[in-house]
């Protein structure tokens, strides 16, 4: 299932980020002129997205880049938290895989999250490393995905909580969800 | 600000010093306070509203949704409740989660309410109360009927007039078309037909179309506790209107006590504190308390003087007594077909068929057909211990077939359930905190059992694999705080008279569910609004 520019726009709206449609379009298409950003942190976030999103989701890189970049821009706490969580992840994978997280293969990228305990730790922005990774990277991206129409449709719910999908879908019978 | 003005230590530069003596001082900026202030300011009265909590920035609502959905936040954080300001004690047999049950700030608890608006039944004013062993209301449904219609117009209620055969009489259509039933409702309809149970739609204080500058519902699915679109009514609407009409609203201004004249006949001032610890005296000709069923009795008790050692307006000794709520009854499980839950956060069908079948053993209850049974996928994902395809498999397994009914059961008002002061604990201004002393009686348990029996019949007819029940043993409150300054024509049997004025003090009125003599089993906010409009009329007549 394909994540769209509209999904990215919606995910940002659900995260309270005001960003112009044109900027989102350029970012999603990868045609935006250079912006100053921590490319390593962004690439790592994309890699986390690939690990925690289902394999049938397409356009993960465009979606996550657009989301994380736009989310970071106006929110220093998030930007700092995200960079810190990326550093924590790298420290862990350097110790156990002798590699930055972004350079792990897709299987190892998911396994590393389990091994680090990110699956069972509580998401906590002030917590230990795995808790911060869960909060700033994993849950941030899961929130972004599963509050979009596409993320909802993966589960069979085209108007998920946190997505302003109107008041028609709740009336529709199964199989008629356009 | 001038030299005599102060923002009270908030740091926003807004003047929080008292105004010169005004016509009306309203305590509380929730729905009752907002409506009273709007009505009186519109009538040309000089009004000051004192609100204990802050003004919330409308732009923060999306962030509050995130606080609700993401598991990293405590539910109290959604509307910044808790801490020393909101300390309380819960001393009865049943714990009472007070800070989950209210919001302090401009808009009050309507900021996180669901928005269900029903008129009480005629029987609630009389025979249902008698059957529960308490005095009837000193007013009848017909006395409130025009105020109910006004309240529906003020809130902007979407409803389908005439389709609920059990509702009390009404002449007017609702201000907006009702929300159509859900797909899930259609599943219940077959079973209810077979059992001769009549379903009907639900009036919602939620825009089904654009109205009064507020958007139609956008389907965020997070109604309770946050509506980002503003389609759900909240009291910022009327507080805003009151301000546009010239009322002054002072936030961060918890009232510490009321002062009265030497004879004890009238209130002279509301003394409020600002965060810098300074106290301010707001004088007025009339005072209206609109701070909910817990803080109102608390304030009256905190205002004890030599003349009134038991607290203000408390000659009856009933301030704080007869605290009652509605109890949740629910049942749910899995169906063998998709049920299409969690698209929206509000209800579209209920049944009030059994509401008036009150007996010696049990009181009224209503049945609800839920549109948000089972887990929300995004919330499940955020708490899951799997990722990627495994997580998606888990979500698909958990979402899709959940189905459930809810309901509210009446609680019999009892003197032994009360709000009092706990002097062993103090709030951020050194005042004793409220103690909510709450328990359940046999009649209430029997009412819950009767609701569960009906739910079981319907779900069994539908073929649902029932997996959970909320009944007498594990029920919880619906956060409707009623009865603590009850209305009576007899000064010995109540705190306020039928005009919502306290029996003891000639210029002190109360607009709140605290004045309910008996709360039936229907969500109380429309009745609160109707009483607030009635109260405003009486205050206006006196001024």
Fold and architecture overview:
Chain A has 178 residues and is an all-alpha fold. Chain A has one domain. Chain A contains eight helices and no strands. Chain A starts with a helix and ends in a 23-residue tail after the last helix. Chain B has eleven helices and 19 strands. In chain B, the strands form four sheets. In chain B, strands 1, 2, 7, 8, 9, 10 and 19 form a seven-stranded mixed β-sheet that branches. In chain B, strands 6, 11, 12, 13, 14, 15 and 18 form a seven-stranded antiparallel β-sheet that branches. By secondary structure, chain B is of the alpha/beta class. In chain B, helix 1 runs parallel beside helix 6 (236-244), helix 4 (141-155) crosses helix 11 (525-542) and helix 5 crosses helix 10. Chain B has a single domain, classed as FAD/NAD(P)-binding domain, CATH 3.50.50.60. The mean pLDDT of chain B is 97. Chain B has helices at 31-42, 61-69, 127-131, 141-155, 183-194, 236-244, 292-302, 377-383, 388-398, 442-462, 525-542; strands spanning 22-27, 47-50, 89-90, 158-159, 176-177, 200-201, 248-250, 255-260, 267-273, 279-289, 326-328, 330-334, 349-351, 365-369, 402-410, 418-426, 432-437, 465-470, 508-510. Chain B is 24% helix and 17% strand.
